[in-house]
Specification:
Elements: H1 3-30, H2 39-55, H3 80-93, H4 96-121, H5 126-136, H6 144-148, H7 152-171, H8 179-192, H9 194-214, H10 225-231, H11 233-236, H12 240-248, H13 260-264, H14 287-296, E1 302-309, E2 316-322, E3 327-333, H15 338-360, E4 363-366, H16 375-379, E5 389-392, H17 402-408
Parallel strand pairs: 1-4, 4-5
Antiparallel strand pairs: 1-2, 2-3
Helix pairs in contact: 1-4, 1-5, 2-3, 3-4, 4-5, 4-7, 7-8, 7-9, 8-9
């Protein structure tokens, strides 16, 4: 911000502050508070919270000091936080007169500078914006707090900020709704004055409808995703494939239904992937280590494992091939997963008893399918006793289990 802009802003601030001073001059000369139509009601509310803060005796629901100590339930349904804020201000001001002066100054400053910012947003010259902001302080609802303690002045104080938000809704195509600002403004307005909050909603609805209808994504306007990617590289900052992924995952306001060709296409079938239970299952069980074991134990008894799936997603056969005996057992189960294989071996183990199982299944050789990816659950029983030893063929090497494959054919 250059010195010229600072000077203009200082002049605007000076004019707004001078207007506030003129508005308060009469009351400051008399030195008395002004009692208006709503003063009794609101001052009872604020006296209640003032007394609670002073005596540290808090009652969120009932009035124990104000309203003639009648126990009325007022503040809890009529802006409790706003009431405590004013009670704290009264506690600092020490008198109703000083409270009125300070609260009026705060309201005029917030409303005046809010109107000045709104007019600057509309590209109005600084001096004219300052004059119009000063005039705004003298008309309508703005002076009603000073002359009658009417909280409609609070709504007039916040109105310029609402109009700035609606201006963004109408003019900003990239980010029409500033949710944080809008949420904060509506929370404050609801807390301060419910009627103003209702009027604010009536102002926001048409602006929101305009934003929805005129700031639609390019996809919803009939542009293809490829056309958007080619012509808006500086805005997308990502690949075309990623844009399609964002739309498919629902991360953007546009949906697949906004792309006619995508809607006409049949959805792709995602192939189900069976993940390994233990990714380190091959450590110590590779084909090379199996060959080393055979050199040390040339008479070792080998049982080869395989699985046969007929129809995808249907029943599966687990085959156990006795190499020396040229015998093959087949077990039918529902799913091609690791737990099914474990359950079959547990059943065999219980039927044969440990001694017979260890004698019949000393060494197991399997492929790299995910159904065999939990070797420890097969090698050890539930008490932790080892009952067999398992090895794996090399990936994509079916010839290493030729006898088993030949038998299945």
């Amino acid at each position: 911000m250059n010195s010229k802009t600072i000077l203009k802003n200082n002049r605007a601030a000076g004019l707004i502050i001078l207007t506030i001073d003129l508005l308060l001059t009469g009351q400051m000369i008399t030195g008395h508070e002004i009692v208006g139509a709503d003063s009794v009601f609101h001052y009872n509310r604020f006296y209640e919270t003032y007394s609670q803060l002073k005596h540290l005796n808090f009652s969120w629901f009932q009035s124990i000091y104000g309203f003639n100590q009648s126990g009325q339930i007022v503040n809890v349904v009529y802006g409790p936080l706003f009431a405590y804020l004013n009670g704290g201000l009264l506690l600092l001001a020490h008198s109703w007169y000083q409270y009125q002066i300070v609260s009026s100054i705060i309201i005029y400053l917030i409303g005046g500078f809010g109107m000045y910012r709104l007019l600057k947003l509309l590209s109005i010259r600084s001096i004219i914006a300052a004059m119009m902001a000063s005039f705004y302080l003298t008309v309508g609802w703005m002076p009603r707090w000073q002359i009658g303690n009417n909280t409609t002045a609070m709504g007039a104080m916040l109105m310029p900020y609402l109009l700035m938000i609606t201006f963004d809704m109408i003019t900003d195509a990239n980010r029409p709704i500033r949710w944080k600002k809008l949420t904060l403004l509506m929370i404050l307005t609801i807390e301060i004055h419910l009627l103003s909050a209702l009027l604010f909603m009536l102002v926001l609805i048409p602006a929101w409808l305009y934003a929805v209808n005129h700031h639609r994504p390019l996809l919803q306007k009939g542009h293809s995703l490829h056309h958007i990617y080619v012509n808006c590289l500086d805005l997308t900052m990502t690949s075309e494939r990623t844009l399609y992924s964002y739309v498919n995952q629902g991360l953007l306001s546009a949906r697949n239904i906004d792309m006619p060709r995508t809607v006409r296409m049949r959805p792709r079938k995602n192939k189900k992937r069976n993940l390994k239970v233990d990714k380190a299952c091959r450590i110590g069980r590779t084909w090379e280590e199996f060959q080393s074991y055979l050199q040390e134990h040339p008479n070792a008894v080998i049982r080869q494992l395989d699985s046969v799936e007929g129809v995808r997603g249907g029943k599966v056969l687990l085959t156990i091939h006795f190499v020396q005996q040229e015998l093959q057992l087949a077990f039918l189960w529902d799913a091609i997963d690791s737990q099914s294989v474990i359950d079959i071996f547990e059943k065999i183990y219980l039927e044969l008893r440990p001694d017979a199982f260890i004698r019949l299944f000393p060494i197991l050789l399997a492929d790299n399918g995910s159904e065999f990816s939990n070797p420890k659950a097969i090698e050890f029983d539930k008490q932790g006793n080892q009952r067999t030893q398992m090895y794996y063929c090399d990936p994509s090497a079916p010839f290493q289990r030729v006898p088993a494959k030949t038998t299945m054919k």
